[in-house]
Amino acid sequence: MSIVNFIEKYRKTNITQYTTPSHGQGDFAAPLSLKMLGRKFFKCDYSEMDGFDCLSNPTGIIKSSMDNAALIYGSKSTFFLTNGSTSGVIAAMLAVLNRNDKVLIARNCHKSVYNGLVLTGAVPVWILPEYNEEWDIYETINLDYLEEIFEKNKDIKAFIMTNPTYEGVMSDVYRISGVCKKYNVILIVDEAHGALWNYNKSIGTPSLLQGADIVIQSLHKTAGALNPSALLHINKDSSINPKKVQQSLNLITTTSPSYPLLVNIEASIDYLNSQKGRLHIHELVKNINRLIRTLKTIPNLSVYSYNNDITKLLIKVTNVSGKELSDILYDKYKTECELANEKSVMFLFGIGTTKAKLKKLEKVLFDLCANNIKISQTENSAKHFPEIEPRVRYTPSVVWGKPCKEVDIKYALSRVVMELIADYPPGIPVLIPGEVIKKEHIEYLSNRQKIKVL
Question: Average per-residue pLDDT in the chain?
Fold first, then answer.
């Protein structure tokens, strides 16, 4: 029985509850909460009572729903995450890494990987993906470089990468997986932004189908679920034990999971996998492609279109920095983008992006570029995200909790940083605790006055 059907059936029992949650399924709700959420939201919020299942040891309706999801995604096991992809990334690391294990990490990883390094005590080895200065983004991982690192570090246990990147760039996970298998390395893919791929492979090919051992997806990013709904999948051919992943999730997940989120996860997957849902995604893809074709005809506007997920539209306008463009879009056109870097801006198109919204964006960009001369007449001299080879003095777990002090950033050269510095979004680290501060870091962070050091 599904979670949704079970709750609907349970409501008809008229059982009087003297349990948590204390709102009594909406018998009480703070007035503002009631105004924002409606009473029906509270009516599906339950605790682990008789008949209900437990997310930390699922044996009933949650297990049944997750088993059904595993069939849909073609995984050995699929786990529902009510604390976002962050919890999935950390749990994956806890499941496969022990203290002092070496783990290769793509530098454009999400900052949740840093949290995993603190908790596991693993030793990071960093790989820099190829950098595109024209767009100010990281692109794909060079396979020769990857193999070179594995040759030099034959004790690397796992490799963590992001696919697609925050900006939508896709790597060849199939070939990367082949290299990992050659060196007996576990491949963990943060596929937070690829949650629609399983239902329309014209957008992208799921990493699970390309040989990744563990894949984490955020259903809330493009697939229409509530924040922070996510999934963790284990590949059928992987040696990773699902029980170990469950134990790892239990270390970092609340014992009081949100049934509204679990209902939403289950309902989202059911819809995405339905004929109606797949048709919905097909129409979204068709409308996005139509928009892209139109935008490519606009003077002074460029569209990034190299091996990317089209649900992330990356554009730039001649002589306007990405951050300037973001401000103009927001202030003049009441349009908010997902991300702005120094060269470009990115618009995220999820399943809730209507044809009308895409048409509105088309008109906005047409108008903006027609008036480009009035927007900016200066060359873009903004700073780019630093492509700096990290120098690790101590692992994050070693320096965690150690006393530190704040110094003027001008005097921080060659000191060991003690705070995580990451632009958010996308949450990619510039510096991670335990790393040495270089001249390039100080130049990039010149707008900061202070920095915490060992």
Answer: 91
Helix runs in 12-74, H state only = 31-37, 39-42, 61-73
DSSP class of residue 296 equals T
At 423-447, the pLDDT tens digits run: 766 667 889 899 999 998 988 888 8
Residue ranges with strand state E in 107-191: 123-127, 131-132, 137-138, 156-162, 186-190
DSSP states of 173-200 as a string?
HHHHHHHHHHTT-EEEEE-TT-TTGGG-
Which token pair is 432? 């991670």
The first and second tokens of residue 358, run together, are 């895409």
Alpha-carbon Rg of the chain, whole angstroms? 23
Name the residue among 137, 202, 142, 201 with its Cα closest to residue 171.
142
- Kindly give, in sequence order, each residue whose CB lies less than 8 Å from that of residue 14, ignoring residues fewer than 6 positions away: none
pLDDT of residue 380: 44
Contact 96, 103 (CB under 8 A): no
Place of tokens 């699970």: 208
Task: Mark out the alpha helices in 354-408 (DSSP H runs).
Answer: 355-370, 372-375, 396-399
pLDDT, tens digit, for every residue of 236-294? 999 999 999 999 999 998 888 889 999 999 999 999 999 999 999 999 999 999 999 99
Task: Please give the pLDDT value at position 309.
Answer: 95
N-term to C-term CA, the chain: 55
State the Cα–Cα distance between residues 24 and 11, nearest whole angstrom.
12
Spatial contact of 188 and 160, defined as CB atoms under 8 Å apart: yes
Q: How far is CA 57 from the centre of its chain?
A: 26
Query: Mean pLDDT throughout 347-372?
Result: 93
3-class secondary-structure state, position 298: coil
pLDDT value for 379: 46
Q: State whether residue 271 is helix, strand or coil.
A: helix
Beta bridge partners of 345: 315, 340
DSSP class of residue 338 equals S
